[in-house]
Amino acid sequence: MHPNPAFRRSDQALHDKLIREVAFGTVFLTTPDGPRAAHVPVLAYGQDDLRFHLARRNALTPHLDGARALITVNGPDGYISPRWYDNRDTVPTWDYAALELEGAVERLSDDALETLLHDVITTFEGHIEGDPWLASESSEEVWSSLFKGIAGFSLKVEEQRPTFKLSQKKNDAERARIAAGVRPQLAHWMHEVSQ
Description:
alpha+beta
């Protein structure tokens, strides 16, 4: 989390929107073998319940149930050039949107994991044009094999540490030039935090 309080937004709707739009995060946990991370699709089931799944053979899987873990969700980011500022006698920086979500983890039941898998498929198929792929297109053998190879988890969010560092300290004209110069996804989030 960035130390400047100007970049911390406690707007839960904004946090939820970032999680919905990105729907992917990194789970961090210190295991007996040292710190480990896993990169996973993440869906929110309410504001304090994040769900994800891992391969059963993932180094984190045997250690997550009952542990306290951290999930980060990183939104768009980008290099910010001083060329966009009124005063170019400065240095470049980086703008970004990110959430750190910490809490207790518990393993999902098979039924809850099944629901999560269908929700992940529906979420991501919805981001692609054309007729969606359906889980029912998998044979029972293929689906069963997948299901046996993964484990689902829920992180009960107890702490949220947001950073929305999106040139808030710049004037409107500078922010417009920055938004015009960066990737569209970053410009979108610059607009979100200025409202």
